[in-house]
Amino acid sequence: MDNMDYEKFCRDILDSDDKIRFATVYDQWAERVAGGMRPGIQNLLTDRQEKELVTLSVLDWKQRKEMAKWLGKTIYTMAEFEQVKRFSFYLGDDDLLLVSTEKEVQTKKTVDDVIRLYYENKSS
Asked: How many angstroms separate the first and last alpha carbons of the chain?
């Protein structure tokens, strides 16, 4: 991946909508690269539960990379839970962005904003 400032990218995502709770980039080993929880927001998961969720997201991402041979690259996935929505964005071959939002967020607007911010940050 090029030299994108992932901390700025994650801050820009949090700044784009008050309903975004969390924006974090992870590497292919499920290690945090940048970002985090919006200040003042209570995490719904323990550290252990969060690590498990990230690990599952990375495993899912690796499976989707295999399927790309037939379907093309995955742009994003979204899971809607009773309390939140969780988006996974695939940033090239080595990095994964996880975004958690309040449930009432507009899915299309969130996806469009994150993709727009990605390209704005990539080019700067």
From this structure: 14
